[in-house]
Automatic annotation (TrEMBL):
Gene3D superfamilies in the cross-refs: Winged helix-like DNA-binding domain superfamily/Winged helix DNA-binding domain
Annotated organism of origin: freshwater metagenome
Pfam family, one: MarR
Record-annotated HTH marR-type domain positions: 16-156
One GO molecular-function entry: DNA-binding transcription factor activity
SUPFAM superfamilies: Winged helix' DNA-binding domain
One example of a Gene Ontology biological process annotation: response to stress
UniProt region (Disordered), positions on chain: 1-21
Name by which UniProt lists this protein: Unannotated protein
Length: 169
């Protein structure tokens, strides 16, 4: 005899729908909410001095090593090379990145963070760390650990889902 799993109860289906809705609403707020706009300005600057999140991602990679080939940088950012080029152009214009010719092949453009870029990155990292510490202060240590585990799993699931989309599955 084949044993079947019981059908989900209406209550469990309602809880799933409710939690799915809450997660969806939270995701939207994280991406577009008014609080996120204020936080972005707090972390990355405002006005002419502001950096966009993609520029901060680029700067984080630039400070991680001495220099990057543009193609490697685009791959590490998981963006199209033209998108990486635009991000770098804005960083160069702001004086926090520089382009140079590769010493092995003058046709290859290398990109690196300037000293001003390294200082700006350090300030962002320090401010982000203090901000997260303040935001997570209401969480007990075990709750922070659990939250980190859930976020890791969520990001992995997102990456897996996107890979499936990329492969037409």
């Amino acid at each position: 005899m084949v044993r079947r799993s019981p059908e989900p109860s209406a209550a469990s289906a309602e809880r799933e729908t409710s939690s799915d809705s809450r997660i969806g609403a939270a995701w939207k707020e994280l991406r577009r909410g008014a609080a996120m706009s204020v936080l972005r300005d707090h972390l990355f600057g405002s006005g002419d001095n502001a950096l966009e999140p993609g520029q901060v991602d680029t700067l984080e990679l630039l400070v991680a090593r001495d220099a990057w080939r543009m193609s490697e940088l685009a791959e590490a950012l998981r963006v199209d090379p033209s998108t990486a080029t635009r991000a770098v152009q804005r960083l160069v214009k702001a004086g926090i990145a520089e382009r140079t010719a590769c010493s092995d092949d003058a046709r290859v453009v290398m990109v690196s963070a300037t000293e001003a870029g390294r200082v700006r990155h350090r300030a962002i990292v320090d401010l982000r760390r203090a901000t997260l510490k303040a935001m997570l202060a209401t969480f007990a240590p075990d709750e922070r650990e659990q939250f980190a585990e859930y976020l890791d799993r969520f990001v992995a699931a997102l990456d897996d889902y996107v890979r499936q989309l990329d492969h037409g599955s």
